[in-house]
Amino acid sequence: MKHPRLAGTAALLTAVALTAACSSGGGGDAGGESPSGTGPITVWLSNNEQEVGWGQDVVDAWNAEHPDEEVTAQEIPAGSSSEEAITAAITAGTAPCLVYNISSAAVPGWVRQGGLVNLSQFEDGASYVEDRVGEGARTYLTDDGYYQLPWKSNPVMVMYNKAVFEEAGIDPENPDMATYDDFLAGSRKIVESGAADSAIWPSPTNEFFQPWFDFYPLYLAESGGTSLVEDQSATFDDENGKAVADFWATVYSEGLAPQEASTDDAMSAGTTAMQLAGPWAIASYAESVDVGFMPVPTSSGEAEPVTFADSKNVSMFTSCENQATAWEFLKFSTSEESDGQLLEATGQMPLRTDLAGTYADYFEANPAYEVFAAQAERTGDVPSIPNSVEVWQAFRDDYSSAVIFGSSTVEEFLSGAAETINGLVQG
């Protein structure tokens, strides 16, 4: 099953990485003057229906109070991917002032392309980001500047079909599958009982972003939040990376997960019992599957593990003439009130401190989302590194060969991928 929030993202490999490779420059540094210019601006929104509705409401509220600084909202232009459309706009000098719903993996390439404004240049830029997000904000630094505002997350958890679990003899309210051993035991029960053809079905395809929905959430959990790359070196060629890779290799070698892509929605079709998913799945499956959620497993059964944030963020573009207005609107659209409206409209988790406490009324009225509010406090994201897309593609190539298809060993995958990635981030 394809992750619905990633449609078309694969084109980012050519659209961002290759364009950035032949470009230079950046959006300025924190030591320069604060960006200026007030007046009308244009912003781009994801073509998600709920987000478009939220965005237009926020724009209307702003315009009612700021007639001389009118904001116009448009959907990101159609194309093979939103990142490709944004990259083309940067090249042509036609990018809007703000784009909502960008992938962190694209940011380093756009910085190298000279397309993004360093929000740290605004007098309150860095403090606004850090006060909003808390300790995790620095994950989103690129070249010591904030070229993206961390906006919302879809923390990855294990989604499961309660009816399939019950048929397999697993308590759907307390699955007891927190350790690798218990998770594998439960997965074997599902398949052996015939409750579903497969226990779990991560996409086995080779797009660079697929590790974000199999290996990486479990690696963050197993390592306590260690990024794939830290201090310009790969981290995963260690006991944590081996534990995660061995787990997934067992899943595939025992036939608990298919080695081919699903041709339909495997959860709705009942051909798999579990997927890795975020809160978007609650509304998506409300009419078709009675789903439950549990944290991703770890070797020791960590009760409150870290997971992948799957964040989508907001960036300002250097082609924007009225950057002072864009900054004020960016803060307006990510205020406590606007974030609450986003939560109500989409069920996605604003990236801000004390989420559960700030929106206690929402979570009381929508208890299915409470587990994600708690999980949102414990997330990691993709590191902001040079050649980001190439790094993830190199990782996926070696992972697929060893873990999914068993054509090489886990040890060869870990050491080989780490060596390649070190060359990409240090070169």
C-alpha geometry: globular
- Average per-residue pLDDT, rounded, comes to 92
Biggest sheet descriptor: 6 strands, mixed
Helix proportion range:
40-55%
Number of helices: 18
Report the span from N to C terminus: 36 Å
Give the helix/strand class: alpha/beta
- Radius of gyration using CA atoms only: 21 Å
Strand order in the sheet with the most strands: 2-1-3-12-4-13
Query: Which stretches are poorly predicted, pLDDT < 50 over at least 5 residues?
Result: 1-32
**β-strand amount:** 5-15%
How many strand segments?
A: 14
Short description:
The protein is an alpha/beta fold. It is 42% helix and 12% strand.
What can you see in these coordinates?
It contains 18 helices and 14 strands. The protein has helices spanning 12-21, 49-65, 82-92, 107-112, 125-133, 162-167, 180-193, 215-223, 239-253, 266-269, 280-284, 323-333, 336-346, 355-358, 360-365, 370-375, 388-404, 410-426; strands at 41-45, 71-75, 98-102, 149-153, 157-161, 198-200, 229-230, 233-234, 272-277, 291-294, 307-308, 312-316, 349-350, 379-380. Helix 2 (49-65) links the parallel strand 1 (41-45) and strand 2 (71-75). Helix 1 crosses helix 17, helix 2 (49-65) runs antiparallel to helix 13 (336-346) and helix 17 runs antiparallel to helix 18. The longest helix has 17 residues, at 49-65. 51% of the residues are buried.
